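Researcher: Let's do a round of design. I'm pasting the structure tokens now; please hold your answer until I've finished.
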């Protein structure tokens, strides 16, 4: 089993995981999404750039929706939850 697969737990909350593992889990989740579900790399970077410039971004999370923006922005059907959407 690959090292990255060892920390996939379908029942754990973030608080139940060792701190550095939940970030690794997020990146594993993103990497394993179907290409059909993801935006292009260019669109992803564009979305994240807008989040970086946004006052609602705190510690990687959007204060409006509570999502980790790196996870939200990669999914094609998601959008910025602001009343004036940035992406
Ligand atoms: S998702 Fe939208 S509101 Fe949230 S941090 Fe990104 S740009 Fe800002």
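Researcher: That's everything. Go ahead.
Model: Designed sequence:
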């Amino acid at each position: 089993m690959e090292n990255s697969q060892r920390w996939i737990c379908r029942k754990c909350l973030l608080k139940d995981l060792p701190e550095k593992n939940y970030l690794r889990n997020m990146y594993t989740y993103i990497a394993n999404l179907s290409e059909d579900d993801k935006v292009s790399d260019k669109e992803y970077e564009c979305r994240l750039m807008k989040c970086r410039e946004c006052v609602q971004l705190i510690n990687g999370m959007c204060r409006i929706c509570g999502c980790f923006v790196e996870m939200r922005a990669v999914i094609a059907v998601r959008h910025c939850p602001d009343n004036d959407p940035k992406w």
